[in-house]
Each structure stands twice: as C-alpha cells, then as structure tokens.
Amino acid sequence: MALLVKSPTMLAVSVALAFAGLAACAGGDGAARRSAPAEGGPDGGTIEAGTPPGNPPAHVVNPYAGATFAFDPAWAASVRATAATTSDATLAAQMNALAETSTGVWLDAIARIAPTDGTMGLAAHLGAALSQQTTGMPVVLTLVLYDLPGRDCAGLASDGELPATADGLSRYEHAFVDPIAAILASPQYAAVRVAAILEPDSLPNVVTNQDVPACATASPLYEQGIAYALDALHPIANVSTFLDVGHSGWLGWPRNSGPAAQELAKVAQSTAAGLASVDGFVTNTSNYMPLKEPFMTATQAVGGQPVDSATFYDENPEIDEADYAAAMYGALTSVGFPTTIGMLVDTSRDGWGGAARPTGPGTSTDVNAFVSATKVDRRASRGLWCNVAGAGLGERPAASPPGYPDAHLDAFVWVKGPGSSDGTSADIPNDEGKKPDPTCDPSYVSPDGVPSGALSGAPLAGQWFSAAFLQLVQNADPPLP
User: Fold this and answer.
1) Is residue 35 pLDDT above 80, yes or no?
2) Is 422 a known active-site residue?
3) Distance in angstroms (rounded) separating the CA atoms of residues 338 and 340
4) Distance separating alpha carbons of residues 470 and 202, to the nearest angstrom
5) Do residues 389 and 475 lie in contact, with contact meaning Cβ atoms separated by under 8 Å?
6) Of 201, 279, 308, 350, catalytic
7) What's the Rg (C-alpha) of the chain?
8) How far apart are CA 63 and CA 85, in angstroms?
9) CB-CB contact of 218 with 153 (8 Å)
10) What is the DSSP string of 443-458?
C-alpha cells in the first residue's frame, strides 16, 4: 500500500479544524490533577499567572541539553500516595524524593488529549511544564504518542481503541494527531521543548512480525500513520521527533537491525521533509534491558566460546542498550539519516540492583554457566517483558550522559513512568481495548519451558501498580540515596 502524505496546506487546514473540535473529546487516563489549572486551553492548561511566554525558541539538535526536565504531576501524586502507605520510613522517603523525577506523558487514546473528567490532558501538562520552568533555562517535556490503528499487533496487553482499517487510520490522523499538533503549535506553549516519541513497538513489529496476521494487516497503517504524525509535528519548531527502535533483545541481531534501519528510513523518506523529519531514536521503551553489562562483553571468550553464543543471548552481539544504541546509530546513519541524530535510552526499569545483582564475573568455563552467574539482567529470558520480578530503577534522567560516546546519547529518560503496569493476565472489563496477556501471568510457562517471572496482581497496562513501583525502588541501581 502506498504511503499517503498530505500537503502542508491540507495538513494546516485539518489541524485547525481539529483544534476547533477538541471540546468534543471525552474520557481520561485516571490520573489525578495536582491542582486546578488556569482557564484558557482546551482542557484548562495554560501558562500560570506571572509566567512570561518568552520568545519562541529555535529548533535544537538535542532538546534535553541545558533544559529543566518537566515532571508529570499525576505520576508524582501516585508516587506520593504509595509512599504514604509504605511502613518503611526509608523507602517512603526515597519514594517522595523521586516524585518530581521526569517521566513521559503518554497519550494512548483520543480521550487523553482533552479529557472532560478532571484528569490532565495535553494542554494541562504543557501548562504544568511551564510552571516548572527555571529562570533562564528552557523546559523539556517528554511526550509519547501511542494510539496507532491495530496497536500492539503482536500482543494483547496494550491493544488500542482504533481498528486496523482505513477508518481507523483516518481517525488516528484527524481525531488524534491533528488535535495534538494544534495544541503543540499554540504560541502559548512555544517555550516548552517537546520531545515527541512516536508509537513505541510499531515499526519494530513491521520488521520482525510479518508472520503474525494482525501485524501484516497493521503494518502499512503503521507506516502511513507515523509518516502523517511526522509531517504534522516536524514543522513545529519547539518539537523534536523520536522514533522507537525496540531494544537490544529484539533488533540486536544484524539480520534485524539492518532491515530496521531501512524500514525507518523508508517511513521518514515518505514525509515532506524526508530524513530530516526525524531528530532521533529511542531504545528500551518500557523494557528491562540493562544499560551496560559491567562484567563481560559479547565477544569475550569463555571456554573457547564467545559470550554471545550463550543460550541467553542466542548469538545476538548486542548484550546491552549502550552497545545496541551505538550499533543502531551506525546503521541509521549508514542509510542516510544525518549524523546529528541523537539516541535516547529508557532507563526507568533497567537497573537490576538489589541482593541478586552480581558483584563480579563468574568463574565457570562453561559459557552458559558463566553468563548466568555474570549478567546483571536476572531474567530467565530476554523476551520477558511484563511486570518483571526483580527489576530496579536505572540511571536517573539526564541530558548528554558521559561514558558512551559511540552511542551518541541525547539523554537517559524515563519514558514509561516506573510503577505503570505493563499489562495484566486478568480479564478486566475496560473501554480501552486492552486484553489479558498470558505473559503477564506469574504461573505462565512458555512452550520452551521459561517461566514468565511476572509479578502477581497487576492491573491493566498503564494503570498504577504499587507493588511494581516498590520493588523498582528497592532494587534501584545506581542505588537511591
């Protein structure tokens, strides 16, 4: 199916019409407001009294550099509520200290844009970001767009509201992307740098899951939808666009990473601005891959065998996200993306600290035994992704983190707020299209005998899961003060 891209004139008209109709949207994401916003925006979120709008900033190469990282007041409220019910005073203090850490704001349904139930919509989040701005510094908000038609085609936990049909694509473009673009283009929010992460998991599924009928059906819609979103967002000077590139345990094999770079280039080239429509890429979104395996390398020989030949890695040369980000940067620039692209790594749940964390390399000369004893990633399989037991917070959000020059990192970010459920195995009635997923069942064992390692009692994907947040705090690495 051909990629359809509207002309800038057509796009501007549709954005203006969508902005005029925002009030018709309803629903919410269940997150409580920190305080009532001022009047003005489609959901009441504007610059607070006394906050000057400032001059519209120029587009920047790295939106996180030199900026204050905005935090989500709704996520902060959930953190503080969990801290208030935690009997351990030290843990409670650590939680409260984390409450204003920057996390991504997810727009995963049309109703999230401008809710009518008192929860925070996009304009309110932008207004909150402005209120957090430090004098003399820009502020950056991490925003995730996640509502493609046929979303989560290879899974069940995050199924979305829009069907994988032409009508679903039209609704995505005009009822989802257009209103978001209209709000972001409003002059009152021009002082907020927005790092817009587009549709996690979608294009990686196009690359690897064409044998799944739902993915084969959804793939051309993913490509067209993301191209449309890039055309809508790239012209907004204060918005930087980032595309998802999965993680090292998914696309790390060269047979996957090469086609992934080509697929991403294909989608970008279908836009009005071409490859320049993309500012960067993000790895490990909502996942658990460690930033760095500190006690071994992929090519290190153990008993005459390289580490990546172990069953756990299955000859995947990228055993952590730092190396994977470096490899993807090389693959992406080799297909034409500019060398100015930056990489983000979601470190919200990849710390793997706690008592189970190895303190040095193993001593076995059997490569499988060595890897099992040495890896900080304590999962039984790299394919486990749902509310994984034993995980911990990773590196705190930071711009241009040192130590990984080949990865060309714009930032460590917490794209998915720690404590946000990955999914549930329970059949919980909901109006979001989300379904139970067996991988989220603690008693589930895969066909090849690997237990899921999932925490019990998880709510629907995206809802607050106190037990998951508690263990992430306990197992944080670097440890919390």
Assistant:
1) no
2) yes
3) 5
4) 30
5) no
6) 201
7) 21
8) 36
9) yes
10) T-B-TTS-B--BPSS-
